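Case study.
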Amino acid sequence: MALTEEQLLTLEKRAKSIRETIVQMLVAAGSGHTAGSLGMADIFAAFYFHILNHDPKWPEWEERDRLVLSNGHICPVLYATMAHAGYFPIEECLSLRKFGSRLQGHPDRLVLPGVETTSGPLGEGLSQAAGIAYAFRMDDKMWDIGSPTSDVGLPISKHGRRIYCVMSDGEQEEGSTWEAAMFIGKNKLSNLTAIIDRNNIQIGGMTEDIMPLEPLADKYRAFNWHVLEVDGHNITEFIQAIDEAKTIDEKPTLIIAHTIPGKGVPEIENDYHWHGKVPTDEEGERFLKEIRHD
Amino acid sequence: MINPDARMSAKVFADDIEKAPMRDGFGSGAVEAGKADSRVVVLCADVSESTRAEQFQKEFPDRFVEMGVAEQNMAGVAAGMAAAGKIPFIASYAVFSPGRNYEHIRTTIALNQMSVKICGMHAGVSVGPDGATHQMLEDIGMMRMLPNMTVIAPCDAEEARKAIVAAATTDGPIYIRFGRAVTPTFTTSETPFEIGKALLLWDSPVGGGTLKIAILSTGSLGYTALCAARTLAEEGIECVVLHVPTVKPLDTEAVLDVAKRAGRVVTIEEHQVAGGFGSAITEFLSEQYPVPIHRLGIQDQFGQSGQPDELLAHYGLDVLHIADAIRAFIHI
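After joint prediction, the assembly is written out as follows.
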């Protein structure tokens, strides 16, 4: 559904608050991943405050949409967004990476309700999302008899729970990502939408220097995916892409979201050194000012 | 003497004992489990004929998932299906699953605590002519190190069937190991099987200083251990054979009991002696009841091509060599 001007402003405000929380929690943690977390704040705000069919007070609700975060290292954005959405108190964000915390350095589904999969090692989320999507489609068959079927004999359904998988661009270098992409393409899992955070950086440098990924969209198209490219900081555009994906029955959809790593803090934007580094107390104060000023 | 409580085949030592590859038990067990519970699904990496997954595929085409030659994705997809309420069995050759996809199993299944049943086929040197690349000898070690993981190595097709059926009704990640060769089906539908329980195959009426050795085996060499015990008993060497299908969690009570009775233990497995079943027994007994232990298995080397029987003989894992090794060990 299209956004009203007011909804857009609210979402943008949410994203700003999420960025502030991310900086605060990373300063408190003393380690973690800053650039990707800040870069994905707009998309996570869109997910948890507009797109997902979910209930923060009932994380186990069977009919919820599933969001699988494959690149678990950007969990500060997941945690901050979940906290703002009401899954747990925002103050708990300051326990990130601390002993005994539910906010583990990489997400652990067993300790934090609302986290769908334990993740961190790259190249695994898309497979798990595929398994959920495949299983749901098997179940949907029970009440969806009579709908058109795909080449593999499974029903094509635009109803029911949707599965989203957020990946990094760096993890496109993992071979298993492509095993999953092939499987999803073969089975036309149109209830699954994948998002690649195309921020062009990875821990050791720029993706195109470390291991070139382009032409990324063409690669997925060749694997039988419907591919869309959006500005990952344009919430309206992102939500339009998500809505378009829901109308595509014959293919899974990939949204390549072009983002700026470190978005909101101009002094670190697009600098890969901030992939796996956190602000000091002083830097944190400065970053917060920059985010609030933006 | 044969332990009557083991309810083994009447033809246990007969020449015409029935023989079958252990994977036949996977095929029939999966169908049985699938009939009992509609949540059971089978995923297979392009080896449905040789793993016998095709039996499930024929019976439940909608619940069979062809993964192609992609074992890493197979592990992750299974974890996702388990998260969505299914009970997935994933079948491939052990060297690829859990070999190739170890870290995927570690993160998405074991750490994630997903109820996926990993069925590793063609483990051990008795894979035969395919040679070293396809003879998985490290899987028990890899899997038993993982927290949350149960590890089962059945001894024949019938026990494999029971292990599959039991796995389907047991929550949590489980690894089940299968050999490739055609071996005697010496257990029966009456033979007790329970995950976590060992089974006395051969018992001795005597104890004290007369019982010389406790032979502990897992997996495909259970029958060989039994035959070795009979050979030794005919020479007056009293022994017991404890078959330990569940390597993790160990049936510590049964292991402790035979170790105390015999005071000397030999372990037998078609696996590296480092990290495998013998290691598990040694770790346990060295802390609880130290006795002399001799581990028979693959001695820190890779396999090679050959017929199953000649390979087992070469690596000292046939009846002749096992009996020799035990004779030498009890005279130390």
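Observations recorded in class. Chain B has a mean pLDDT of 96. The two ends of chain B are 25 Å apart (CA to CA). We will return to this complex in the next lecture.
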